Amino acid sequence: MSLKITVLGSGTSSGVPTIGCPCSVCHSADPRDTRLRPSILIQHEGSNIVIDTTPDFRAQILKAGIRKLDAIVYTHGHADHILGLDDVRPFNYHQQARIPIYAAPPALAIIRRVFEYVFDTKECSTHVPKLDVHEIGWEPFDVAGLKFEPIPITHGPQTIHGFRIGNFAYLTDHSDIPETSIARLHGLDVLFLDALRHKPHPTHSTVEASVATARLLQANRTYFTHMCHDIPHAATEATLPPGIFLAYDGLEIEA
């Protein structure tokens, strides 16, 4: 199985630059320090699957040149992961098809509340996203011919979804990874981990904690994502052990 993964966004919920911030990272000339909200595109045998629809979804899809969307998979229901959902409407129009979405019940409850108009059964004279909703739990499920294996991760007080697809795993927004999940993450080629900043945070991993996780799991390549403006790309990556890198918007990886 061959996957192409494109990083659509590698930033935290505020993005980088952060509004009103005078710091050096927010004003950096390095394009890798410009980070939209966290999302990836997975491409496999002609299918395009997006994990999370951020508030930057429209800009991310245009930048990536994506003209067809086969499915959306959600990690959880926080604003920075769902608020771009309305922008699937052009895909509905061009494909003349509904877009499958996959999410756990807590995330679906938030999506249904935030986008109430999408799920209103009354006749509507305007265009709204047309979705096929699939509720997921902790059992593997199929998306456009790919087997997604849910990986429970801790995001502050919540347990949310990470995913393993073959020898690739995407774990964003985690403050901890349970031992039972660690046991399911060995033998990876490519691993993505949350690494918000150096200072501890109640709902996110630090760079140092994620380095320790990467060393434990020993994936061939580990990429950090969901980074805030405390993390200058070039200076931080220069301190990382071999095989560990910072993701950046537009990064393309084969797995």
Report on the structure:
- The chain has helices at residues 57-64, 79-82, 89-95, 105-114, 116-119, 179-182, 207-217, 233-237; strands at residues 4-9, 39-44, 47-51, 71-73, 99-103, 131-135, 141-143, 146-155, 158-165, 168-171, 190-194, 221-225, 244-246, 252-254.
- The protein is of the alpha/beta class and 255 residues long.
- The strands form 2 sheets. It has a 7-stranded mixed beta sheet.
- Strand 2 and strand 3 form a beta hairpin.
- The longest helix is centred in the C-terminal third of the chain and has 11 residues, at 207-217.
- It is globular.
- The mean pLDDT is 96.
Structure at a glance:
By secondary structure, this protein is of the alpha/beta class. It has eight helices and 14 strands.
> Which strand order spans the largest sheet, edge to edge or round the barrel?
6-5-4-3-2-1-14
CATH class type: Alpha Beta
Using only C-alpha atoms, the radius of gyration works out to 18 Å
Major beta sheet summary: 7 strands, mixed
Tally the beta strands: 14
The H-and-E topology, N to C, reads as: EEEHEHHEHHEEEEEHEHEHEE
Annotated CATH homologous superfamily: Ribonuclease Z/Hydroxyacylglutathione hydrolase-like
Number of helices: 8
Proportion of residues in β-strands: 25-35%
| Uncertain regions spanning at least 5 consecutive residues | none
Ends distance: 8 Å
**CATH fold-level label:** Metallo-beta-lactamase, Chain A
Please give the structural blueprint:
Elements: E1 4-9, E2 39-44, E3 47-51, H1 57-64, E4 71-73, H2 79-82, H3 89-95, E5 99-103, H4 105-114, H5 116-119, E6 131-135, E7 141-143, E8 146-155, E9 158-165, E10 168-171, H6 179-182, E11 190-194, H7 207-217, E12 221-225, H8 233-237, E13 244-246, E14 252-254
Parallel strand pairs: 3-4, 4-5, 5-6, 10-11, 11-12, 12-13
Antiparallel strand pairs: 1-2, 1-14, 2-3, 7-8, 8-9, 9-10
